[in-house]
């Protein structure tokens, strides 16, 4: 009887509905992330312009995502926001081939997509976590794993479709798949509003494969800003990890062109997405065990070192098969980094500001990092060529990794000296 009190709740049927939503949503995302640059270069835009357009599909979300989040928190409107964003995002994507390949209209449509459909990952995460308060059987990690599977399988399926027809099929593909995501969203019951009474058996926030959350709605205040700016470990981590994410986005953005230049096909472009996304899944699920065996800072340093190899070898591989195989390193790098970084930030952040610390890091990594990485890499490719750009990417990653290692060594020494000083004072 006593053991049953500690037994994990059985998986709720709502988990599978969220899993379906995650699957189709991330299957739609891969269309633009993997094939928009090849499409833009095919219709006549240069690599610099293509990089600028790719930056637009992340730019709007930097501001829009937290605003959508505040709107959802005000009245449990996750489903409404998601359905509206899917509809507007699909319309913007379908208008891209109608724009005539002009930079400004395509950039504007990218901004619309960025501020709506592409701003939904955080809203989807929040919806799942909010629903877990009233349904202990909803498993975030399981549902999110289906999102990675959707990205992996969607890339492979779309690559085959493009090889069988034309690259323009990516636009109706996106509209159909995001429509299926909307149908899955409609099948999920609306959760109770924030004013409703929370159940007594609320799920622990550190459940297996879940990221840490807090119950309170986050607000940016002077105290929160001061806390972030005065946290040396947080600022050091944010700056150095941003440097890595800029290079990662550059590598991801122009990988399709590198595969084509090496003699590959659209199927192999899709397969590269499958290998990368599929490689994330086991490491994300295994993060709970890894964090039991190793300290978060050691795992972060390991994942940063893996980023050096994951990004650095691409410029030296001449075959499409080798480029596809190299994406397997995505699991050891990004697949370890993402869940561990969430735990690391949760440890160094003050309790009352933990959500602000987390959401700011997400905005910096996936918003600012993606915008700078996409636009800057496009300019560099136009100036020195594709393969030369790839051969430069590892240098900033090496600098960031060495910088983090030095900081950890200095910080550990400082903590030991402070602890030793405290023991000396007590003994006296």
SSE blueprint:
Layout lengths: L1 H5 L6 H30 L4 H29 L2 H18 L7 H13 L4 H12 L8 H25 L5 H17 L35 H9 L1 H30 L4 H28 L2 H17 L7 H7 L2 H20 L5 H31 L1 H7 L1 H34 L1
Radius of gyration: 22 Å
CATH level 1 name of the largest domain: Mainly Alpha
Largest sheet, in brief, is: none
CATH architecture of the largest domain: Up-down Bundle
Helical content band: over 70%
* Helix run count: 17
Structural class: mainly alpha
N- to C-terminal separation?
51 Å
Descriptive key words:
428 residues, mainly alpha, Growth Hormone, Chain: A, 17 helices, 78% helix, disordered N terminus
Structure description:
By secondary structure, the protein is mainly alpha-helical. The chain folds into 2 domains: 12-190, MFS general substrate transporter like domains (Growth Hormone, Chain: A, Up-down Bundle), CATH 1.20.1250.20; 222-417, Up-down Bundle (Growth Hormone, Chain: A), CATH 1.20.1250.20. The protein contains 17 helices and no strands. It has helices at residues 2-6, 13-42, 47-75, 78-95, 103-115, 120-131, 140-164, 170-186, 222-230, 232-261, 266-293, 296-312, 320-326, 329-348, 354-384, 386-392, 394-427. α3 (47-75) runs parallel beside α5, α4 packs antiparallel against α8 (170-186) and α11 (266-293) runs parallel beside α13 (320-326).
């Amino acid at each position: 009887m006593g053991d049953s009190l500690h037994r994990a709740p059985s998986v709720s049927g709502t988990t599978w509905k969220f899993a379906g939503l995650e699957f189709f949503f991330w299957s739609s995302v891969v269309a633009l992330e993997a094939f928009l640059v090849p499409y833009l270069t095919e219709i006549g835009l240069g690599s610099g312009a293509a990089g600028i357009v790719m930056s637009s599909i992340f730019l709007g979300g930097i501001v829009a995502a937290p605003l959508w989040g505040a709107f959802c928190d005000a009245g449990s409107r996750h489903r409404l926001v998601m359905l509206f964003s899917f509809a507007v995002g699909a319309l913007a994507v379908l208008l891209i081939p109608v724009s005539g390949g002009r930079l400004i209209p395509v950039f504007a449509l990218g901004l619309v997509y960025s501020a709506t459909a592409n701003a939904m990952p955080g809203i989807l995460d929040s919806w799942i976590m909010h629903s877990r308060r009233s349904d202990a059987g909803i498993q975030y990690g399981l549902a999110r794993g289906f999102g990675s599977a959707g990205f992996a399988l969607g890339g492979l399926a779309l690559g085959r479709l493009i090889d069988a027809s034309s690259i323009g099929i990516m636009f109706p593909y996106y509209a159909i798949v995001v429509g299926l995501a909307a149908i899955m969203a409609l099948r999920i019951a609306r959760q109770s509003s924030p004013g409703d009474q929370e159940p007594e058996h609320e799920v622990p926030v550190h459940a297996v494969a879940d990221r840490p959350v807090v119950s309170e709605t986050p607000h940016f205040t002077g105290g929160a800003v001061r806390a972030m700016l005065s946290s040396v470990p947080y600022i050091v981590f944010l700056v150095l990890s941003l440097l890595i994410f800029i290079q990662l986005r550059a590598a991801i953005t122009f990988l399709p062109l590198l595969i084509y230049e090496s003699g590959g096909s659209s199927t192999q472009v899709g397969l590269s997405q499958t290998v990368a996304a599929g490689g994330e899944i086991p490491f994300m699920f295994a993060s709970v065990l890894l964090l039991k065996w190793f300290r978060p800072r050691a795992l972060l340093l390991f994942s940063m070192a893996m980023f050096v190899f994951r990004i650095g070898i691409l410029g030296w591989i001449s075959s499409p098969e080798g480029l596809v195989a190299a994406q397997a390193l995505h699991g050891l790098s990004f697949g370890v980094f993402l869940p561990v970084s969430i735990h690391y930030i949760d440890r160094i952040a003050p309790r009352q500001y933990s959500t602000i610390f987390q959401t700011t890091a997400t905005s910096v990594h996936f918003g600012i990092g993606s915008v700078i990485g996409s636009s800057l890499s496009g300019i560099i490719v136009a100036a020195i060529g594709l393969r030369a750009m790839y051969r430069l990417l590892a240098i900033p990653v090496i600098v960031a990794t060495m910088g983090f290692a030095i900081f950890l060594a200095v910080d550990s020494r400082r903590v030991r000296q402070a602890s030793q000083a405290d023991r000396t004072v007590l003994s006296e």
